[in-house]
UniProtKB/TrEMBL annotation:
It comes from the Bacteria. It comes from Natranaerovirga hydrolytica. Residues 39-57 have a biased composition (Basic and acidic residues). This is Uncharacterized protein. Residues 34-65 are annotated as: Disordered.
Length: 195
């Protein structure tokens, strides 16, 4: 019974977040990542963690390193684009997009296209030229106020890894992988392993 109440509370919170969450318009924010930086007017200050000392490095081979800050900006852009869409009052109809393809195109600026397609197909439905969000449990997000690791896995591949606990699912490990794709850093995979 307690588990059902927790899930219900979580679902209600997610619906409220979707209905009253961040307003996103394409005119206000540009989520293209060029040379590893996010082009928005947002300032992501207030982070009390130690920042990674890794900076962009053009080390003769033409590759640059992804910084922890850039990885977090990509994670935030992923949620802003896919899970903070403004809806019409009293419905789940998305205001700024009329098709899955248009949302995938914008999300693909920060997320590998196949990953963007997967999430759009899971959380949205297209009907009669309109796009609707499907109310359901959301994607697990990196908890910035909890400990996590930022690691360099291999050439042009980095990951944010967090071991965390959630009332609904218990202990889990979140692994968010980033790769340089067509000269830009993008999220290439998200995996949550329930322990």
């Amino acid at each position: 019974m307690r588990m059902k109440m927790s899930r219900l509370l979580y679902l209600v919170c997610m619906i409220i977040l979707v209905l009253t969450g961040c307003v996103y318009t394409e005119e206000e924010q540009d989520y293209s990542i060029e040379n590893g930086t996010k082009s928005t007017e947002e300032n992501h200050s207030g982070d009390t963690r130690e920042e990674s000392s890794k900076e962009d490095d053009n080390s003769g081979d033409g590759t640059s390193q992804l910084t922890e800050t850039e990885a977090i900006e990509i994670e935030e852009a992923f949620f802003d684009i896919l899970f903070s869409q403004e809806t019409k009052e009293g419905s789940n109809e998305i205001i700024h997009y009329e098709s899955k393809e248009s949302l995938i195109n914008v999300a693909s600026e920060v997320v590998k296209r196949e990953l963007a397609s997967y999430y759009v197909d899971q959380y949205y439905r297209e009907e009669e030229g309109k796009l609707y969000i499907i109310p359901m449990d959301g994607v697990t997000q990196l908890q910035l106020d909890s400990q996590y690791d930022f690691i360099h896995k291999e050439d042009n591949v980095y990951a944010l890894i967090q071991d965390e606990e959630n009332l609904m699912i218990g202990d889990y490990e979140l692994v968010i992988t980033f790769e340089k794709i067509d000269g830009q850093w993008k999220m290439s995979d998200r995996e949550m392993k329930v322990e």
